[in-house]
Amino acid sequence: MKTIIFEPGRTICKGGNSENLLPTVEVPSVCFLKNFEKEGSENKLSQFNNLQETNKNIHNLNNIFSKDELKRIVLVGNEAIKSLELTNGNLIYPLHKNLVMSDWLLCELIWEQVLLELGVKTKFENLKNKKLPSDSEPESENQALMVILPSTGGILIKEKINEWLKENYDFNQVTFIPAYLLTLYSHGKETGIVVDIGSFWTNITPVIEGVSDDNYSLSIPIGGRNLEEYMKILLSRRGLKFSGKKDTKCIEETKDDLLVRNILSENCFVSTNEKNTREIISHTTSYLELIRFNSKINNSKSIILEEERFQVTEDVFFKPYKIGIESPSICEAILKVINKCPLDTRTFLMENIFLTGRSSLFIGLPQRIQVNLTQLFLDSKLRGDTNRLNKYKFYVKDDPMRDVSTFKGANIYLQLI
């Protein structure tokens, strides 16, 4: 029986099957409202025009249009990003930081696009095929689905996906697996600490012999969105301008927001020693980087990045008080989680720390966390006694493919069962 693997992420939804180690389909979790011709009643068209004039949120469309009508006027995934490049508008992220406020109807459009690209047919399409003279059974009845649940809000997402699947698809079997467990499986482990750095939250989950306890887990409000917002502040000091966010339920992005995200992924890194890096910057030009902006607000502007390349990750990950967030740093949070766990497991947990998530792909991040954890442990627990430090060792796994570690773990899990 063929198994489909599906991961509904906040920024990217991934899909694949048990035959491939990596996801074969990646659909950005974004929507874009396009212009459409008059096909229905004049009343709906006038309501839509008023919606555009008042710049109201796309959530209000659900009260005007049905799901089938929304499919005609809303672009999802890569098509939405391409349309943004050609027109002036905003991308909509339907999954909110507070999942209760999310637009689940728009989420379903994105999820359906993932399964469509994987070749999975809906119930309606299967009924059509049954009417045709054919001896073969519909493919979806011989397929199983594995859904990878995120670390936060997994229960709510599980309920919504379950309702959506029962209404639209005929899978032989549906399995829900937490992402942190699959991350450990991808490294051949059953015990360790999984640090999932997501868009809004960093979730630190200790797993002991395949079992996690919520009392030991910890979530801090640090993620990729904080990096983007802080990078805008640093770039504004260089003379760039950015449009303000609308106060809506969904997160809206412009072309400049996408460019800031590209700068973070391509030009930024984590300094293993901040003091030495600043000394190098003051004496050399090795960290200079020229960036060009070609948008409506920042038309043909060029800036030079230097200390911003590492300062954004330095302040967000390790000094969150500098950006106005009352939260422990990532290293302090990991040490808190270790101290909560049973005494006989702490030494093993120190040596098995695994990063996951797209916001964890910065060069130097595993090494910096490892250095900071060692220093924090020396100061707080050993009271500066370096002789006792030889008995303890922190090790953070530096996996270059940690953003798809859940898919690797899913394949291993399917082989085990």
Automatic annotation (TrEMBL):
Reactions accelerated catalytically: ATP + H2O = ADP + phosphate + H(+)
InterPro entries: Actin, ATPase_NBD
Stored Pfam families: Actin (PF00022)
Domain of life: Eukaryota
Entry similarity comment: Belongs to the actin family.
Annotated protein name in UniProt: Actin family protein
Organism this protein belongs to: Cryptosporidium meleagridis
